Structure formats: C-alpha cells, structure tokens
Amino acid sequence: MGRGVLLLLALFVVHLHPSFERDVYHKSSRYPTVRNKEESDPNFWAKEAWQGIESSRYKDNVNKARNVIMFLGDGMSVPTLAAARTLLGQREGRTGEETQLFFESFPTIGLSKTYCVDAQIADSACSATAYLCGSKANRGTLGVTADILRTNCSFVNPENYVHSIAEWALAAGKDAGIVTTTRITHASPAGVYAHTAERDWESDADVLDDCASAQDVPIDIAEQLVHNYPGTHFKVILGGGRREFLPNTIIDEEGTQGKRLDGRNLINEWIEDKISRNVSHKYVWNRQELVQLSLSPPEYLLGLFEGSHMKYNLKADPTMEPSLADMTEIAIRSLNRNNNGFFLFVEGGRIDHGHHDNLVHHALDETIEMAAAVRRATELLSDEDSLIVVTSDHAHVMSFNGYTRRGGNILGPSDDLGDDGLPYMTLSYANGPGARSHVNGKRVDVTADEDFGDLDWMTHAEVLLEDETHGGDDVAVFALGPYHHLFTGMYEQSRIPHLMAYAACIGPGLHSCDD
Ligand SMILES: *[C@@H]1O[C@H](CO)[C@@H](O)[C@H](O)[C@H]1NC(C)=O
Ligand SMILES: *[C@@H]1O[C@H](CO)[C@@H](O)[C@H](O)[C@H]1NC(C)=O
Ligand SMILES: [Zn+2]
C-alpha cells in the first residue's frame, strides 16, 4: 500500500470519528455532560447482568394460552424503541438511555422479516395479512392471498380469502375484540376482519372512486366490519373513524362530516343488528361514556371516539378521548368474561403517523403510550394463562445518529456539527416533509427555526417527500406468557399468528393439542 493511500485511509478514519478529533459540543446544548456515579463500579454492571440471568431462569411456560393479546406498534422500528425509552427516562429525570419500556423486560425477543410478496418494504396492509392471517400478501391488500393484486375491482372469490387469528379464536369458542388509535377501518385493525384488494376502500365513497364501473362493486371495509363475519361477532370495537360509518349528509357529535354516499348509517345498523340478536350492546363516542361502562360492559361494545384517527396523545383532551391503556382495560374486562378466553388486537397506530410527518416527538410519545397499555394488560391478566405479544408491522427511516454525550436531550441536536459547521438533530430522517431547501447552497440551521422544539416542529430529512416512508429493517417481537420461548429467533412475519395459534391450540395450531 502506498503512503498516499495510507494517508487517505487515516483521513477517512478521522472523518468517521469526528468526535475523536474535534471535541465540538454544540454551543446551544442545554444539558451538561451527565455521569451516573454508580456506573464507574464494575459491580454495578455485573449486578445488572446477574439480575438478567436470574430473571431469565424462568421455568418454560407450556400452559395452554387461554388468552392471546397482540399489541402492534405501527411503524415501531428498533431505533424508535431506543429513542422512546430514552425519552421516557429523561421525562423521569434520568439520563434516559438505561431505561426500559415496559415490554422490553419480556423474557423472549425475536426479529421478524417484514417484506411482502410484491414489495421489498411493507405497507400496513400486506404486513397485517402476514401477522394476523399467517400468510404474506401483496402491498395494499388485506385478508387475501397473493393471487389478488391491489385495487382490482373484481369480486374477490372467498377461495382467495385468508382468515385471521380472530376467526380461529371465535371458532374455538373464544371471544375477540379490536382496539386502535387509528380509524377502526384503517389497514392494521382491518386486517383482523376484512377481505379486500384495497386497504383504502374504507367507505363506499372510496370504493366508487376506483370501481364505479365494476360489475360487482366490492364491499367497503366499514360495511364488512358491521355486517360480515367475523366483525359481526367482535364483542369490543374501539377506535376512531366515525366518518366511514356515516352518510355525508350527517355531521357527527364532534363536527366531522360523514363520508358515505349510500345514505347508510352503519352505526345505527350495528345497533339494529344487536337488537335483532337480543344481545346487550352500547355505542359510545367519548371517554366519559366509555369509563361509565368499565365495571359492567355490555356484551357488545362499539366506541368510535373521533371522525378520523384519534388525536395524538399529547394533543388529546383527556376528558373526551380515552387513552390506549383505558381502551385496553375495558376490552380485557369485557372479553375476559368468556370462560374459553379471548383474542384481542391492540394497535398503537399513530407511532406510524408521527414518523410519516417527521414529528418525532409524537412518534416516541405514542410508543410510550403503547408501553403503558401493555403494562395495564399485564396488571389485569396472569402470564400463567395469557400470552402477550408485542411487535410492529414495519420499520421507518428515522435514524438515531451522531456522537452525543450520555444523557443528551433525545429530542435535541447532536453534540457534533456537520462538516458544514451546522448542527444536526440526533433523531433525523432519510426522507419526509421535514426536508429543507438549501439556502445559498448551504444546509439551514434547523435549531434556529422560530418554532424549534415545538410539538409540531418537523425534524430534518434528507429527501423531500410529502410523507416519510417506511423502512425495510426487521422489527422486534416481544413475548410473555405461555410458549413465549417460541418467539425467539429470526423468522418471517407470517409465522407470528401460527406461533400464537400453537400456544392457544386454535386454528392451524389445533393439531398440536393432545387434549
Ligand atoms: C382482477 O381479478 C380478476 C379476478 O380474479 C382477474 O380475472 C383479472 O385478471 C384481474 N385484473 C387485473 C388487472 O389484474
Ligand atoms: C332477550 O333476552 C332476554 C335477556 O337475556 C330474555 O329474557 C328474553 O326472553 C329474550 N327475548 C327474546 C325475544 O328472545
Ligand atoms: Zn405507515
């Protein structure tokens, strides 16, 4: 190797580790370097390690799972977990990095591969089909095989349906329910009950946009929930999305106009269906009405708390909108009355939306909210008979980058500067609406924005896109309860419902049971 090459290599290494060369701390850093004193003692780290060993010397749990709860953090990538736990710790007055989100203490963790049959990077529809129905599909499609292409207006033959674990649970005499912070007709919750070639067909208006001239117009997702199996049998349905159920001649309780063109009021039709079946039921649209039911929920409960998605937790009026933990609790109290147990799907759906808008503070806060909902579930159920799985459908392109000192504000700029001498954010994106035009050929200093650090301030992105994209990385799967150990390893996302079914002896897992 010539001397010149070596020199170049040396320069390159220095370039990779700028903090070794220039100890530049950003001048506006508000946080002094923090050291936790006890961390200088090797025994501190040894104790931490031994606590881990002790707590994982659990006995294998090979009980049959009476209950299965799947928590889905939409877009909850692995860097999102690291950043959210740091924010949680910093809110509690610590350095932050050492914190655990509640479910990060679960005994088994695996990784799932999220690509779809026609897509390197998943959307929330094909991935929902994988993690709920156990079969990979094409992007944009729900509850159908990969023979069905997106937005095909032809009738989907039921031979092309794939069925969700909620149906497997119902067939085994269990109850089922869905809870989300998005519209209840949005891709992830719809994966529990819908069969459609297009995730965007949430109301008949959306179907007509694409299929006005089709022979048999496909049934929209809201109608499928109210009138088709298995949605007709869900004991609990909680989320947002009233507009998909109401005619466009109606303004709902909070001022949102309905979307439907067929003049139907599917909320009333849901009520009429329950009356005709002579079962106790209740429709609620705000937190107060929901909480009043918490001790004795009706047999069937429909709660729609917003016209579209529920508000971000940090922006919601807590007297009007229930938290994800509130909704999870009442769902469990309701479903747990069935002696055969239940399957419950709970989605923290707005993690994804925070990322799409480069609103990283919201993405992290919604992740913390989901961890609180998981904790609530474990307080109400025993890991002797209840399997809890926490995972995500796909990653995002947020990176956790730079060389910031311990305890540095996770929502702040890196201690380091770019080679252009300007600050950059510890949490930034490869793409999205936060991309700024260069001024006079130079990157702008986003920390000088007037609204820097506000809740609606967008962190910066490299490539300008109206919507930040998903990422293709693997996502984590956390498991607690019966057969949690099956969830270790790296596997296809479509394996997840098969593992849950095996633990519960339902659906395709039935063959595994001797009793
Ligand atoms: C749509 O689906 C129908 C029925 O499965 C099929 O015959 C047709 O070729 C599909 N059309 C397209 C454009 O894929
Ligand atoms: C409806 O249910 C109630 C309470 O379970 C029962 O007393 C009543 O007989 C039922 N009515 C009909 C028409 O089945
Ligand atoms: Zn998304």
Automatic annotation (TrEMBL):
The keyword Zinc-finger does not apply. Mg(2+) binds at residues 74, 186, 188, 347. Zn(2+) binds at residues 74, 352, 356, 393-394, 470. GO terms for molecular function: alkaline phosphatase activity; metal ion binding. The keyword Zinc applies. Its EC number is 3.1.3.1. Residues 1-21 form the signal peptide. It comes from the Eukaryota. The active site is at 124 (phosphoserine intermediate). Binds 2 Zn(2+) ions. Binds 1 Mg(2+) ion. Keywords: Hydrolase, Magnesium, Metal-binding, Signal, Zinc. Its cofactor is Zn(2+); Mg(2+). It catalyses: a phosphate monoester + H2O = an alcohol + phosphate. One of its GO terms (cellular component) is plasma membrane. Pfam families: Alk_phosphatase. Belongs to the alkaline phosphatase family. This is Alkaline phosphatase. It comes from Galleria mellonella (Greater wax moth).
